[in-house]
Design goal:
Elements (H helix, E strand, L loop, with lengths): L10 E2 L20 E2 L44 H12 L3 H8 L11 H4 L4 H22 L7 H14 L6 H9 L5 H12 L12 H15 L6 H13 L15 H10 L7 H12 L8 H11 L11 H14 L1 H11 L7 H14 L5 H17 L3 H20 L12 H11 L5 H11 L8 H20 L4 H13 L6 H9 L5 H13 L5 H10 L6 H14 L4 H11 L3 H14 L5 H9 L5 H14 L8 H5 L9 H9 L1
Antiparallel strand pairs: 1-2
C-alpha cells in the first residue's frame, strides 16, 4: 500500500500550462501537487505562486472568516495570482499547437474547425481515439467493482466528464456523487464531471431532456443537508457551468427561467457556510440573461448598494459576488455602479475589486465612448485607491481598454502627455515596488495580439517593447517582480526581445524563477527556432532548479515541435517528483497530440508506478482529448472576484 504524503506545504497546479496551488486535498483530484523536489537542488519558491489556502475556520489575512460569512475579506496577492488564473486564455490557442504538432494519423488541423462546428481532421482523430481507446479505459477506472485508488478514480471522473459523448453514463456520476462511503474528493469530482458535460459545439451537446435531468439532480444535491457543504457547493458550480447549454423551449423553462427562479429562491436563505451562498450567486450570474427577470436584477443591485434583501443585510464579501453576478447579467445598466464603486474607500475592498475585474472582462465588448470614459475614471480612481493590489488590477484593466481601442484602429489612449499608454509606462518603470509588475502586465496587454494599423500604433508598440526591456535589464525588486517584465514582453509578442530572454534562460546565475518565466515568455513571442528548442530540451535534464524544469516543460507544450511527445513521456518515466510529473502531464494535455494517449494509458495501467504518477496521467488524458477549444474553467473565472473566494471556489479553480 502506498502511503499518501503530506501535501500541505506549497501546493500548486500546472494544468493547461497555468500552474495554480490551492487546498491540500486537491491532490486527490489529480489537480494539486507538492512543490517539486529534485535530487541535490536548492529549495526555491514555486514558479507560480500558490494561491493562499482559504481556511474554513479561524481568521484570514483580511481578518475575516469567509466560511462564517460574517465579513468580507481580501487576500493580499501579487501579480502572479492574476497571471495563474488568466494565462490559459492568453497563451497561444491550442489549435495553433495542433497545427504544427498533430500526429500523422490525424492529418493537418484545420484552424477554427471546432469553433465553427465543423469536423476537422484533428476532431475526427480525437473521436476515434476516444471511442476506441480512452473512453473504455476511463470507464474501467470508474467501475465500482474495481479496486481503483480514490485519487485515480476522482481524476477519471473529471476526465470522463471532459470527453464523454452519447451515451453518457449519467448513473456513474450520480452514484459517486451520492455515495456516503466515497471520499469527499471523489464525490466532488463526480459532481464536477456532470458540469463538464457542457459542449460549445452544438452537435456534441447532450439532448435537452438529459440536460434537464442533470440540472434537477444537481439542484436536489445542493438541497441535501446530509451532503458535505463543499459537495453541495460544487453542485451549484456545475449548474453554472451548464448554463450555456440548451433549456426546454416551453414558457416555464425557456432561457433557464425555472432554474433562475430556483436559484434565486435559495440565495437569501441562511447557510452555515459562505461556500453555499457564493456558489449560488455564481451559478445565478451565469444563467442566460434573457431568462433572468428584472426583479432579480433589481434585488442584486440593492444587495450591491447595501440595502436589505430577503429580510437580512449582506456583508461586503457577499455584496462583491452579487456585483459579479449582476455584471454578468446586466452589463449596460450595471456600468454606472461599477464606475461609481472605483476608488471609493467607503466601499469594501472586495466590492471595489469585483468592479475592476468585471470591467477588465468587459473591455473588448464596450463601445468606444464607454471605454474612454472608464479609462479616465480608472486613472482618477487609481490615485484614491488605498489597496495596492486593487491598484494593480486597475493597471491591468487599463491595458485591456487600450488594447480594445487600438484593435478598433483608435489611438486616442496613446496620444498626448496624459495618455493611458504613457501613464502605464511610467508606473512600469517608476511605480511602487508592488505595482510595477502589474503595470508591466498591463503594458504588455496593451498590444497583445495586436497588428499595428497606423504609424502611431507601430511607434507605440516599439515603445512598449523598449519600456519592458528596460525594466527587465534594470532588475529593480525581487526576481519574481522582475519576471513580470519578461511575461509582459511575451504578451506583447516582442520578437526583438528574444535574444535578451534567451540569455536570461541560458545564464545559470539567474534565479530559477526568472529563468522559468523567461522560458514561457520566449514561447509567447513565438520563438520556435532550433536554438530555442534545443535549449528547452537541455533544461529538462538540468538539476539546478526545478523551476527552470517547469518553465521549459510549459514552453515546449506551447510551441509544439516534432518529438516533443516522446520527449515528455520519457521525462514522465524519469521524473520522480510529484510536481515534475504534474507539470509534464499538464504539458502533454496542452500539447493536444493524440499520440500521447496510448503511452499514458500504459503508465496508468502499470502498478509499478506510484498512484500520483498514474493520477497525473489520467489528468493529461482528459486534457488531451477534451474537445473544448477553451478550458471550461474559463466560464467560472471570467470576471470573477478571485481575491474574495471561498474554499469551494478555490477548489473548483484548482481541479478545472
Amino acid at each position: 500500500m502506498i502511503r499518501r504524503p503530506d501535501l500541505r506545504p506549497l501546493l500548486w497546479i500546472a494544468l493547461l500550462g497555468a500552474g495554480v496551488a490551492f487546498a491540500p486535498d486537491a491532490a486527490a483530484h489529480g489537480g494539486g501537487f507538492k512543490n517539486p523536489q529534485m535530487p541535490n537542488q536548492p529549495q526555491e519558491a514555486p514558479s507560480d505562486v500558490p494561491l493562499p489556502v482559504v481556511p474554513t475556520t479561524g481568521g484570514t489575512p483580511g481578518g475575516a472568516n469567509p466560511s462564517a460569512g460574517n465579513r468580507a475579506f481580501f487576500l493580499q496577492e501579487d501579480w502572479r495570482v492574476w497571471w495563474i488564473l488568466n494565462s490559459p486564455e492568453l497563451l497561444p490557442a491550442r489549435g495553433v499547437i495542433e497545427g504544427a504538432n498533430v500526429t500523422e494519423a490525424a492529418g493537418p488541423f484545420e484552424l477554427g474547425g471546432r469553433e465553427a462546428g465543423s469536423t476537422s481532421a484533428w476532431e475526427m482523430a480525437r473521436r476515434k481515439v476516444v471511442t476506441e481507446t480512452v473512453y473504455p479505459h476511463l470507464l474501467d477506472l470508474v467501475d465500482p467493482s474495481t479496486d481503483t485508488p480514490q485519487a485515480i478514480r476522482a481524476a477519471a471522473l473529471i476526465a470522463l466528464g471532459r470527453i464523454a459523448r452519447e451515451p453518457v453514463p449519467l448513473s456513474i456520476f450520480e452514484r459517486y456523487a451520492l455515495d456516503p462511503d466515497a471520499s469527499v474528493e471523489v464525490r466532488e469530482s463526480a459532481v464536477m464531471g456532470l458540469g463538464l458535460l457542457r459542449r460549445s459545439d452544438p452537435t456534441m451537446r447532450l439532448p435537452v431532456d438529459r440536460l434537464t435531468r442533470v440540472r434537477e439532480f444537481l439542484l436536489q444535491l445542493f438541497d441535501d443537508k446530509d451532503a458535505p457543504n463543499r459537495v453541495r457547493a460544487f453542485a451549484a458550480y456545475a449548474i453554472g457551468l451548464l448554463a450555456d447549454q440548451p433549456y426546454p423551449g416551453d414558457a416555464i423553462h425557456r432561457d433557464g427561467r425555472d432554474m433562475t427562479r430556483e436559484l434565486w429562491r435559495r440565495v437569501p436563505r441562511k447557510y452555515a457556510s459562505a461556500d453555499l451562498r457564493i456558489a449560488l450567486l455564481t451559478a445565478l450570474g451565469l444563467q442566460p440573461r434573457a431568462g433572468v427577470p428584472s426583479g432579480v436584477r433589481d434585488d442584486l443591485r440593492y444587495i450591491v448598494v447595501g440595502r436589505n434583501v430577503g429580510n437580512r443585510r449582506w456583508d461586503g464579501f457577499e455584496r462583491s459576488h452579487a456585483l459579479t453576478a449582476l455584471a454578468r447579467l446586466d452589463r449596460a445598466s450595471c456600468l454606472p455602479i461599477l464606475v461609481r464603486v472605483l476608488g471609493n474607500s467607503r466601499q469594501h475592498v472586495s466590492v471595489r475589486t469585483a468592479s475592476v475585474l468585471a470591467l477588465a472582462e468587459w473591455a473588448p465588448r464596450l463601445g468606444a465612448a464607454d471605454r474612454l470614459w472608464i479609462a479616465d475614471a480608472l486613472r482618477k480612481a487609481w490615485h484614491n485607491e488605498p489597496n495596492w493590489q486593487a491598484q494593480g488590477l486597475y493597471l491591468i484593466t487599463l491595458g485591456k481598454l487600450v488594447n480594445a481601442d487600438l484593435d478598433e484602429g483608435r489611438d486616442r489612449m496613446i496620444k498626448g502627455p496624459n495618455c493611458i499608454g504613457a501613464f502605464l509606462a511610467r508606473e512600469c518603470l517608476d511605480g511602487s515596488t508592488m505595482e510595477r509588475p502589474f503595470a508591466a502586465l498591463g503594458l504588455g496587454l496593451c498590444v497583445h495580439e495586436l497588428e499595428p494599423q497606423t504609424r502611431t500604433t507601430a511607434a507605440f508598440v516599439r515603445s512598449v517593447h523598449g519600456t519592458l526591456e528596460q525594466g527587465l535589464h534594470r532588475r529593480r525588486g525581487s526576481a519574481e517582480a522582475v519576471s513580470a517584465y519578461a511575461v509582459g514582453l511575451g504578451l506583447s509578442r516582442a520578437v526583438g526581445a528574444r535574444d535578451a530572454l534567451f540569455e536570461i534562460v541560458a545564464e545559470k546565475k539567474n534565479g530559477g524563477f526568472m529563468r522559468g518565466e523567461a522560458c514561457v515568455a520566449l514561447a509567447l513571442t513565438g520563438a520556435r527556432d532550433l536554438k530555442t528548442r534545443e535549449l528547452l530540451r537541455r533544461l529538462l535534464t538540468e538539476r539546478r532548479s526545478s523551476l527552470v524544469f517547469l518553465g521549459a516543460v510549459k514552453a515546449l507544450s506551447m510551441i509544439g515541435t516534432e518529438g516533443t511527445v516522446e520527449l515528455l513521456v520519457q521525462q514522465l518515466h524519469k521524473t520522480r517528483s510529484i510536481g515534475g510529473q504534474t507539470a509534464i502531464a499538464a504539458g502533454l494535455g496542452r500539447l493536444g497530440d493524440l499520440a500521447a494517449a496510448e503511452p499514458l494509458i500504459q503508465i496508468i495501467k502499470s502498478r509499478q508506478k506510484s498512484v500520483y504518477t498514474r493520477t497525473m496521467c489520467v489528468v493529461a488524458l482528459g486534457l488531451i482529448c477534451d474537445p473544448e477549444p477553451k478550458p471550461s474553467r474559463r466560464r467560472l473565472t471570467a470576471g470573477a472576484n478571485y481575491p474574495a473566494r471561498t474554499a469551494a471556489m478555490q477548489q473548483v479553480f484548482n481541479i478545472l
